[in-house]
Amino acid sequence: MTFHRLTLLASFLSRPSNFLIHSHQCRLFKFNPNRQFSLTKIRPRGDRPAPSIKDAAKKPKVKLTYSELGKLFRLAQHEKGRIGCAIGLLFISSGVTMSVPYFLGKIIDMLQTYKHDELRTRLKQMTWFLVGIFGIGALANFGRVYLILTTAQRIIKRVRQQLFNGILRKEMAFFDKQKTGELVNRLSSDTEVMSNAVTQNISDGLRALTQSIAGVGLMFYISPHLALVGLTTVPPLAVGAIVFGRYIKRLSTKVQDGLAKATDVADERFSNIRTVKAFSKEDHEIELYNQRVSSVLQLKYKESLAYGLFYGMTGLSGNIIVLSVFYFGGISMSEEALTIGDLSSFLLYAFWVGVSISGLFSFHLELMKGVGASQAVWAILNEDHNERMIASSQLQRTIHGEPLTSALMLRDITLDAISFRYPTRPDVLVLDNLTLRVPGGRVLAICGSSGSGKSTIAQLLLRFYEPQTGQIRIGKVPINEMPLQWLRSNIGTVPQEPILFSSSIYENIAYGHSSVEKNLPETILRNKVIQAANTANASGFIEQLPEKYETKVGERGTMLSGGQKQRVALSRAILRDPSILVLDEATSALDTQSEYLVQEALEKIMVNRTVIIIAHRLSTIIKADQIAVLDKGRVGEQGTYAELMSIENGIFRKLVSTQTMVDVDE
Ligand SMILES: Nc1ncnc2c1ncn2[C@@H]1O[C@H](COP(=O)(O)OP(=O)(O)OP(=O)(O)O)[C@@H](O)[C@H]1O
């Protein structure tokens, strides 16, 4: 009878190793597939030199510090109450769990000691008592799981909001370097890993810690001698886990890089699907993607082999412990130093300790994952690269004693000795000590060969980038002293290839509504949108669409023609009634009708504004009040069309004669 019970117990106890393998594989394989970065050491704010955009964007090396852990834990500080409650409930449920082996031992001894009615009465009492205890445990578990899961979601939401906010406020140079897919991945996946590390993982880790401490204590309480035997495999296992952890970390970095590359291929090909199809490159792209995912599979084989070996070893050592405890415990029992109940309790505690210790290994790994994921998020949130936006309610009303009005923005624009290199390409001097005056309220056409820096001037005016030397002024006020939001709200832009949002035409035009004047009543805004569309000659085609202004334009506006997109973009730009209008003319010719409509709209809206046209068409250039010709990073020539054409061997004349302009034959 005793032997039979022991074999039953032994077969039950042989399962923990399986259980361990299963639970840990589930946890450990849950890596973020798209993570493309590794950890870096972040110094405290005070002694940290401002990292360059390049530094922030590249993937740094790994070193774990306490400040990194502290930062991660601070994510949970708003949820102290909920997490505290969850931890309280955790102690209750762990207490209940840990009492199970103790009571099981008592029941086994009861079976040995009492007979018939006495046994029946005692068993009944014990059962009701345990039902109560387990009920409390179940309630505590329910509360803990609910609180931890909802807290994790609350943290994820907060980090996502902060991160989205942080990303949108970054300087343009940041976006030059970062891949869209990667940023989206940070928002969706990394935030989740971070949050889990400080909620579910803390809860699991604490449970593992309390259960292993209590389990070890109770093992020593029952039999110090057996406890020492049982715990002999822990130190070698811990060493094995560290070695294993390092190997897996290296391997998983490779796996993540591989997955990121595969995702990059998919991301870029999907967004350029027209190019892929136009060149019939489907097979080529499928092959490329297959190669990327196959290399990931090869790494996964290695990873699986390592996991298999490690958990095979832990399972084996777990079983060896059970066997040695049986052996030594059996001898102790024969010497009457231990009861069968004590031995049973002991074995169950040994089982729980085994589970809990591997729970601790897993906790460590999850924490590392959280820290890893948080590195890139902290780098993004690092305010060194943020634009200085202020709430519209706090916008200053004057600057240098001048009121901030559209009249100020209509003054002459001066680019004074501007030198500029793009931060991501510091070797190329795009503008070299350039000086240019844009007459206020007039039309200036900027022309020059491709890549001469025409669009760059517009980007500097919008303060997407800061020049390394020189100053841009409107009137006498340097633009870098103006509130950024205010400056931009007074400049309307129509890029060369306008990109629309995948919403309705109405929403796309209304997007131009200046955020400085918030809370505009819907009816007024609608009228303004229609008026802007009329001015931009867009209302004709919009009214012919079945859903008119509510027509969805498709991703990036692909459901509209080039000319229609231009006119929607023009409507959006003029909705805010900007003092300065920057138009980057399309290099490719639109159809005659669209061309006419765009040109006519432009003529209407040029009145009483300073207009800078990055011009590619001779017809536009001829109509401009002034023409500036860029050459070798400077303004080579500036004047009216007639003046520039009269310069013998002039740059402009050459430009016209080499037919680089779209309608040069006109
Ligand atoms: N975001 C950027 N990062 C790095 N280099 C850039 C960036 N944008 C433009 N450049 C480089 O700066 C130079 C000037 O570019 P810009 O777009 O101002 O030329 P452009 O005169 O407007 O050309 P095009 O007429 O062909 O549109 C080019 O050599 C270009 O490769």
Automatic annotation (TrEMBL):
Organism: Rotaria magnacalcarata
Lineage, uppermost ranks: Eukaryota, Metazoa, Spiralia, Gnathifera, Rotifera
Record's bilayer topology term: Multi-pass membrane protein
Predominant localisation class: membrane
PANTHER family: ATP-BINDING CASSETTE SUB-FAMILY B MEMBER 10, MITOCHONDRIAL, ATP-DEPENDENT PERMEASE MDL1, MITOCHONDRIAL
Keywords, in A-Z order: ATP-binding, Membrane, Mitochondrion, Mitochondrion inner membrane, Nucleotide-binding, Transit peptide, Transmembrane, Transmembrane helix
Domain ABC transporter stretches: 413-657
This protein's GO CC annotations: mitochondrial inner membrane
ABC transmembrane type-1 domain segment(s): 86-363
Cited SMART domains: AAA (SM00382)
Sequence intervals crossing the membrane: 81-105, 126-149, 226-244, 305-326, 346-365
Gene Ontology terms: biological process: oligopeptide export from mitochondrion
SUPFAM superfamilies listed in its UniProt record: ABC transporter transmembrane region, P-loop containing nucleoside triphosphate hydrolases
Top-rank taxon, per record: Eukaryota
A family per Pfam: ABC_tran
Record-given protein name: ATP-binding cassette sub-family B member 10, mitochondrial
Location(s) in or outside the cell: Membrane
Gene Ontology molecular functions: ABC-type oligopeptide transporter activity; ATP binding; ATP hydrolysis activity
